[in-house]
TrEMBL record:
Residues 26-181 form the Pseudouridine synthase RsuA/RluA-like domain. This is RluA family pseudouridine synthase. It holds the Pfam family PseudoU_synth_2. Belongs to the pseudouridine synthase RluA family. The lineage of its organism: Bacteria, Pseudomonadati, Pseudomonadota, Gammaproteobacteria, Enterobacterales. InterPro entries: PsdUridine_synth_RluA-like_CS, PsdUridine_synth_RsuA/RluA, RluA_PseudoU_synthase. It comes from the Bacteria.
C-alpha cells in the first residue's frame, strides 16, 4: 500500500476573505484564490479560510471546501447544529453549485455532460484519476458562454472558452479532471494540463470561480440564491 506524501507548501495569500452575508447562524463568503480552505498539517500551511474566520467567529466550521486555487462562494456554519443541517443538504445533493471557468481551446459543443468516475490513487497523490472500475460516480454539466482568443506574453494567440460548470456530484478535483477528460483543461490548472499549451505557462491562477450557490436556510427555511461575478 502506498503512503501519501504531501509536499505542498502554500505561498502566502495577502488577499482578504470577503464576507458577503452574515446572520447569527451562517456566513456567506468569497474565498480568494491561493488560500487553503482548511489548515494543513505543516506549520507553513496554517493560514486558511477556517484559520482566519475562527478568530472572528469562534466555533465556526466549514460545511464544504474549495480547492486552494479556486476562488468564490462558500457557506460557513456558525454552530454545530447549523453545520449538521447544511451538511445534510450537501450530502442529499439538494445544494446547487455553479462555477465559472476558462478552458484551453475552443469547445465544439455549446453544452454537454461529462460522466466519468473518479478514483483516489495514493501513488499519484495529489492527482485523482478517471477509473470506471474503482472510481466513485461523478457527473458534471457544462455550457459555453463565449469562445475567444487572448494574446499571450509571447505574442501568440491563445484560444479560450468561457464556460459555466455545474457539478452534479462533489468529488475531489471533479471539475478540473472532467475538463481534462473533455480535452479542454481549465486554464492555469497545474495538475490536469492547464499550463501545458504554449502561452499558458505564466497564467497567474487557476481560472475557476464558484459563482453561484443555492441552498435552503436551515432556520428560516428561506431559499438562498447567491451569485458572485467571476474576477476573470
Amino acid at each position: 500500500m502506498s503512503t501519501i506524501v504531501d509536499t505542498f507548501i502554500a505561498p502566502p495569500c495577502s488577499e482578504e476573505i470577503e464576507i458577503l452575508y452574515q446572520d447569527e447562524y451562517l456566513l456567506l463568503i468569497n474565498k480568494p484564490a491561493g488560500l487553503l480552505s482548511l489548515s494543513g498539517k505543516k506549520p507553513q500551511n496554517l493560514d486558511s479560510v477556517h484559520y482566519r474566520l475562527v478568530k472572528l467567529f469562534p466555533g465556526c466550521t466549514l460545511v464544504h471546501r474549495l480547492d486552494f486555487g479556486t476562488s468564490g462562494l462558500m457557506v460557513v456554519a456558525l454552530n454545530k447544529a447549523i453545520n449538521a443541517a447544511l451538511c445534510q443538504q450537501f450530502s442529499q445533493r439538494s445544494v446547487n453549485k455553479v462555477y465559472s471557468a476558462l478552458l484551453c481551446g475552443h469547445l465544439n459543443d455549446d453544452e454537454g455532460v461529462i460522466d466519468a468516475a473518479i478514483a483516489k490513487d495514493p501513488a499519484l497523490f495529489p492527482l485523482m484519476s478517471i477509473c470506471a472500475i474503482n472510481g466513485k460516480p461523478a457527473r458534471s454539466r457544462y455550457r459555453v458562454i463565449e469562445r475567444f482568443s487572448q494574446e499571450s506574453e509571447e505574442g501568440t494567440l491563445l484560444p479560450l472558452t468561457r464556460v459555466q460548470l455545474t457539478p452534479e456530484t462533489g468529488r475531489t478535483h471533479q471539475l478540473r479532471i472532467h475538463c481534462q477528460q473533455l480535452g479542454h483543461p481549465i486554464l492555469g490548472c497545474d495538475l490536469y494540463g492547464g499550463l501545458l499549451q504554449p502561452g499558458t505557462e505564466h497564467t497567474p491562477r487557476l481560472m475557476l470561480h464558484a459563482s453561484e450557490l443555492h441552498f435552503v436556510h436551515p432556520v428560516s427555511g428561506e431559499e438562498i440564491k447567491v451569485r458572485h461575478t467571476s474576477p476573470f
